Predict the structure of START-like domain-containing protein.
Amino acid sequence: MGDKVKFEIEFVIQSSPQMLYQYISTPSGLSEWFADNVNSRGELFTFIWDGTEEVAKLLKKKSDEFVKFAWEENEDDSFFEMRIIVDEITKDVSLFISDFAEEDEKDEAKMLWENQIADLKHVLGSK
């Protein structure tokens, strides 16, 4: 397995930071757009896609600002973080994603996020 590289992508989302935070930090919110189903026990979140389960540990969170997870099976220091950024001047709300992928899988990983965020925007009624 090669070294994973960090990548970051930003999506402008028409939503309040408070509402957006509910969708990125709670099992019920995440299961509306990120996975088929999400369960949590304490800081362990189980994400279910097509019957496959992946467990991530919630490393850190700050209300209305960000959540940071690490997949349990990772052997490295990689994580994924969803951070809410509000532009001080325009008050535009963005979701800033930080994630890791193998160099040759980076484009695919970005595309996956783009699809997921499209689902999130649909759920939020955002353009």
User: Anything to note?
Assistant: The longest strand covers residues 52-62. The chain is about 25% helix and 45% strand. The beta strands are 4-12, 37-41, 44-49, 52-62, 66-71, 80-86, 93-102. The mean pLDDT is 94.
